[in-house]
Design goal:
two-stranded antiparallel sheet; 366 residues; globular; five-stranded parallel beta sheet; 15 helices
């Protein structure tokens, strides 16, 4: 038998070593990524753990998604599988890449896109008040650091992270988290070794808090206010992508303490969305139908607690069932785990409601 040339043997060894090294590097990188203090990692890794082509509806956006929409209650009532693909303060420029990432493994009947990401970028600031939310490191990393390594992730970083930033630690995030070696011994971190980990809440986040908020009815506001030039370009690019891919999309505004300027911006966006032939819903205009109690159902001006989420999901769930067609998958063997997840959800909700109710009772007793 003819011997393999020495140079070829060395080349094969080098290739084999490189493959093993890269596999270990990726695994360690996934483990070192932080998960505490944010729902972002749990949510996105939970999405990757879902069976392929199993989701009927995917919600995309920021905390306005994972605190409002209850996938497990929608499942219990209608047998429709949904998921909250959401990260804290999601920058609007990454939404298109979220759609691309979702489409790799899922082919949902409907995408629901949270438009509050645009208003947060337009009017809100994060820790550094000289940088808008859409360009701050934390909101960006909430997305980039939780995607699996892929060409889509590389393209997202190239297009969405400002050129003034050092992008290398975004492409290879182990550079940023290389001091977190203790995570290699942490059981929770080890669950993310392949960047997926089952989430029984389907992307929802439990928040144990309540706050009385002030709501102003802006439903009669008909004036419009355009987005900034940069945000407008991002918005049109997103619409063009959805049109090109022939996606069924509902552009949504969750019901919060909306300012007049926000409503004017949504009115502008609604007109453009209608021109593209997509659906739009500002649930702030239906606050009476939803029945939200602004003394008990919120935990800050922008987010509901579990009591508000119940009412919101009931309203929006009925709206979705009346406007779109979904198959009831309750009883199907492939979805048996969803019934198991509902039991986990129910137990968590029971404890959460008891805790929040105790806070409400204590406040009223003062």
């Amino acid at each position: 038998m003819k011997k393999i040339p020495v140079w070829m043997g060395n080349l094969l060894k080098a290739v084999f070593f490189s493959i093993i090294f890269l596999m270990l590097l990726v695994t360690v990188s996934y483990i070192l990524r932080p998960y505490s203090g944010s729902a972002s990692r749990k949510n996105l890794c939970g999405f990757y753990a879902e069976e392929e082509d199993s989701l009927d509806v995917v919600f995309i956006g920021s905390s306005a998604v994972f605190t409002f929409w209850e996938p497990m209650e929608f499942w219990k009532k209608y047998g429709v599988a949904s998921y909250d693909f959401a990260t804290g303060t999601m920058p609007p420029q990454v939404v298109k890449y979220c759609l691309k990432e979702i489409k790799k493994t899922q082919d949902p009947e409907l995408f629901v896109i949270d438009l509050r990401t645009f208003n947060a970028a337009e009017t809100g600031y994060y820790q550094d008040r000289s940088i808008k939310n859409m360009d701050h490191e934390v909101p960006l990393r909430n997305v980039t650091d939780n995607f699996k390594y892929s060409l889509n992730r590389l393209q997202m970083i190239a297009d969405c992270v400002p050129d003034t930033y050092d992008k290398i630690p975004y492409y290879l995030d182990i550079i940023k988290y290389h001091t977190e070696w203790t995570r290699l011994k942490d059981k929770q971190s080890l669950l993310f070794a392949v960047n997926d980990s089952h989430d029984s809440l389907k992307g929802f986040k439990f928040v144990d808090a309540v706050k009385e908020v002030e709501f102003k009815d802006q439903s009669k506001v008909e004036s419009t206010k355009p987005l900034s030039e940069r945000l407008d370009a991002i918005f049109y690019d997103l619409l063009d992508y959805c049109k090109e891919e022939d996606l069924q999309v509902l552009f949504l505004v969750n019901s919060y303490c909306q300012a007049k300027g926000h409503k004017e911006t949504y009115n502008y966006m609604a007109d453009v969305i209608e021109e593209y032939g997509f659906d739009f819903l500002n649930t702030n205009d239906y606050y009476k139908e939803i029945g939200l109690d602004y003394t008990t159902d919120y935990y800050d001006q922008s987010h509901v607690n579990i009591f508000g989420a119940d009412k919101y999901t009931e309203f929006l769930g009925e709206y979705l069932m009346n406007h779109y067609t979904f198959e009831d998958k309750r009883g199907q063997e492939a979805y048996a785990s969803w019934n198991e997840d509902y039991e986990v959800w129910s137990e968590g909700v029971k404890e959460l409601k008891a805790s929040i109710q105790a806070k409400i009772d204590a406040r009223e007793a003062e």
